Amino acid sequence: MTASNETAQSRDETRPVPLVMTKLHAPPARKQTVPRDRLLERLRPGPGIKVTIVAAPAGSGKTTLLGAWRELERPARPVAWLSLDEGDNDPVVLWSYVLAALRSQCPDLRVSAPPEVLGSARIMDRFLPELVNELIAIGDAALVLDDFHRLGSGLARDSVAWFVDHAPSTLQLVLATRSDPPLPLGAMRAHGELVEIRAAELGFTTEEAEMLLNDRLDLGLEPGSVNDLVERTEGWPAGLYLAALSLQAVEDRPAFLTTFGAESRNVVDFLIGEVLEAHDTATLTLMLRCSILERLCGSLCDAVLEQEGSDELLARLSHSNLFLLPLDDRGTWYRFHHLFAQLLRVELEHREPGLAATLHRRASAWHREHGSTDEAIEHALEAGAFVEARELITTTWFQYTQVARHATVVTWIERFPLEVRRQDPHLLLVAAWVYLLSGQRDASGAAISAVERLRPFDPGPLPDGFSSIEADLALLQGFLTWGDLRYAVERGRRAAELEGPTSPWRPVTDVASGWCLYLLGEFLEADRWFAAATQPALDLEQWRVAVSSLVGRSLVAEALRRTDEQSALAARAVALLQEQRLEGADTELSIALGATLESRGDLESALASFERAVAVHRDSGQPPLLALALIRQAAVLRALDREAEAQAAAEEARSAVDSCPDPGILASWLEDVERPPRTRRRNDDDTLSERELVVLRALTGPLSEREIGRELYLSHNTIHTHTRSIYRKLGVSSRNEAIRRGRELGIL
Questions:
Q1: Tens digits of per-residue pLDDT, 518-562?
Q2: 210 and 159 share one domain
Q3: Which of 21, 174, 454, 455 could make a disulfide contact with 52, Cβ separation 3.0–4.6 Å?
Q4: Are residues 700 and 670 in the same domain?
Q5: CA neighbor of 85 nearest in space, from 156, 27, 147
Q6: pLDDT surpassing 50 at residue 15
Q7: Among candidate residues 202, 223, 242, the one where a domain is terminated
Q8: Distance (Å, rounded) from C-alpha 288 to C-alpha 225?
Q9: Nearest to 406, CA basis, from 80, 92, 191
Q10: Strand 334-336 relative to strand 324-326: parallel, antiparallel, unpaired?
Q11: In 675-713, which ranges are continuous DSSP H helix?
Q12: Is the previous residue joined to 456 through a cis bond, with omega within 30 degrees of 0?
């Protein structure tokens, strides 16, 4: 449930994980860059084009070409840029970056709930439709996704496919990739919706090579030598540039070109040594040892090299080597061209076998000290430093779940060797939580079982603030686990006992128990647990826990027929979400708002709220909450005489209820909904008289009882007596409940 996304930590620790803004910077134009007008013309937007693909192997000049094109386009329209990496396989991360990239160029772009609030399950049904509508309002714009091949299969790529299919014609989407993206390219090609630039077109012509080698790099090569190099490299831009770097370091260039002959089966293998040996020892060491870094700055390189002066070396290398790309306008951050970095890593392992692990450890320590936890964990995992990686993950996993980055944490955990995961209860508990929150029921259950097998547990506290493994495990099992409600209450109470009244996890424990008790029909006891959680959650700034407690209390108030209290509590929950900018994180809130609207007789709006709740809970892995939302939806549909839809919702609710070992009061609520209204038996004494039916129909309008009396030529006392009789016969306590019940019974 929603409360489980919140954690018991301080405000500084619960801020969203920061984005690496250098990913939003296109490579700046360099003085060595060769203008490629023939390709720039191909990139111009055309009518009916959905996607432009620049697809070619590494070193083909894709990024350089698109960087130059972006500079040409920017005066006319906004062009957003995002360089992708493996971390963007988490759809929440991907679309957070896309949103940041678009907003950097279109500041007026607004969405009601960002990806980190909605979570990955609602990217396609909630976030992307709104983003598409906003882009329509923005008008002519472009978005470049560089290194698109670094997105693996799964929801991230699926969401891009949805976006491509629905993006407005005013947006030009450009993908730079080493391999074809999983899009219906054939269909788009047939319909004229696709522009493709492939490796053959990206290859340098003799004229372009002449400009690079002689005009830009001043090598003074004869035309025949230039043409020979183009033939031998097949125009491959990276091969030509590697050759140019080698030529800059030799005096007898014609002799070098003679040795660089057709017998060299691999241009890169031949040239890499020449390029590296042209540099002094300090620069060579930096290039090799810092090739393990995804992005570089002077301070980070100093830490990796355990020396000083890297700032100056990076600045000098950036001016002389096109394979070191600036990532910002201040000359602080750089990255090696991906192909060049791969070559450097191979050469590093050849020259200094096994050193890469030590370098990754140093990089991890630097990132940890500077607060970039993602990269600290990545480098620790690359180093095989599983103790350090485990400490970082078990300490910070809650930050990532708060911003719905469940997939990121799952990916990290799955990179641990299986034998390490199986024997580490702390890591297994984190896995169980993250799988639970992302709706992976079987995986979460397997992790919980694996923890159980490691008994007896060490008694000490856990890195994330739990008092013990036993307490953590008990709370996990208390989160409505798979619908065994009485067992969940038992485990929740055990967690509360173990954590104690002052534990930062106590509000979460109390809310979990409150929900189970509510669904068991123990309303007063549920209210006590919800009420106990609210203020401590607010004090600890556990906003979602506080919202969940208010929502629970609102539904309890409804069950106890405290209509005014019900509305007030739901309003407080909405206000808190808005205040903390968490709109969209409204899973249980949608049920409470629907219940409030239903009590007011606004059935259409209530239905919309219940439908939102159903959509969310289908992906939550928690059948009780899905069943609750479906039961409420079915009741309103039936009241609106939409019988077929009501029956479908009831059937889905039946499936959810039947999957619960102990569904509590949900079973009886569902049975009530499953009975068609007109076949429900009522005692003759409970049948409304003709006059009472007239009064009931009048109660559906805006008139007060006194005004209804004037309309019907009856005294106010008579109308009041009829109203009380109606309430008694229908088993309700308010006007809105009477209206709802009348519709359920088919007499309105």
A1: 999 999 999 999 999 999 999 998 898 999 999 999 999 998 888
A2: no
A3: 174
A4: no
A5: 147
A6: no
A7: 202
A8: 31
A9: 92
A10: antiparallel
A11: 690-699, 705-712
A12: yes
**How many CB atoms within 10 Å of residue 442?**
9
Residue with tokens 């980055």: 405
The 8-class DSSP code of residue 211 comes to: I
Residue 112 near residue 178 (C-beta atoms within 8 A): no
Look at residue 2 and tell me whether its pLDDT is greater than 50: no
Residue 415 CA neighbour count, 13 Å, CB half: 19
Two structure tokens written together for 682:
């009522």
| Exposure string for 698-710, b = 16+ CB within 10 A, e = fewer | bbeeeeebeebbe
**Which stretch of DSSP H or E encloses residue 234?**
none
Nearest to residue 14, comparing CAs of 548, 581, 511, 543? 543
Give phi and psi for 105, each to the nearest 5: -105, -25
Whether 95 contacts 127, CB under 8 Å = yes
Query: Which pTM does this prediction carry?
Result: 0.79
The burial of 610, by beta-carbon neighbours within 10 Å (0-12 exposed, 13-18 middle, 19 or more buried), is given as buried
Measured CA to CA in angstroms, residue 418 lies from 387, 421, 550 at distances of 14, 5, 41
Half-sphere exposure for 735 (CA within 13 Å, toward CB):
16
Q: Which amino acid is at 744?
A: E
The string of pLDDT tens digits covering residues 224-277 is: 889 988 888 888 888 888 888 778 777 777 777 776 654 434 566 666 776 777
Of 679, 698, 719, the residue at which a domain comes to its end is 679
Neighbours of 439 (CB within 10 A): 18
Task: Name residue 417's amino acid.
Answer: P
Measured CA to CA, the distance from residue 153 to residue 690 in angstroms comes to: 65
What is the end-to-end Cα distance of the chain in Å, rounded?
A: 36
Q: Which two tokens stand for residue 82?
A: 């995002």
State CA 41 to chain mean position distance: 36
Residue 459: CB atoms within 10 A of its CB come to 9
The CATH number assigned to the domain holding 531 equals: 1.25.40.10
Q: What residues contact 744, with CB distance under 8 A and at least 6 apart?
A: 635, 638, 639, 677
| 525 plus 659 within the same structural domain | yes
Residue position matching structure tokens 């692990």: 357
Structural domain count of the chain: 4
SS3 209: helix
Q: Tell me the per-residue pLDDT of 579-630, one tens digit each, with 9 for 90 and over.
A: 988 877 767 899 999 999 988 888 899 999 999 899 888 877 789 999 999 9
Q: Which three-class secondary structure state does DSSP give residue 714? A: coil
Provide the token pair at 173.
Answer: 């989407």
Question: 181-220: b or e for each residue (b if 16 or more CB lie within 10 Å)?
Answer: bebebeebeeeebbbebebebbbbeeebbbbbbbebbebe
Range of the domain at 223: 206-277
Determine contact, residues 51/194, Cβ cutoff 8 Å.
yes
- The sign one gets for the Cα dihedral 564, 567, 570, 574 is negative
Q: What angle, rounded to 10 degrees, do the helices at 355-369 and 373-383 form?
A: 160
In the predicted model, is pLDDT for residue 724 greater than 70? yes
How many other CB atoms are found less than 10 A from the CB of residue 281? Answer: 7
Omega before 45 within 30 of 0, i.e. cis: no
**What's the CA gap between 519 and 514, in Å, rounded?**
9
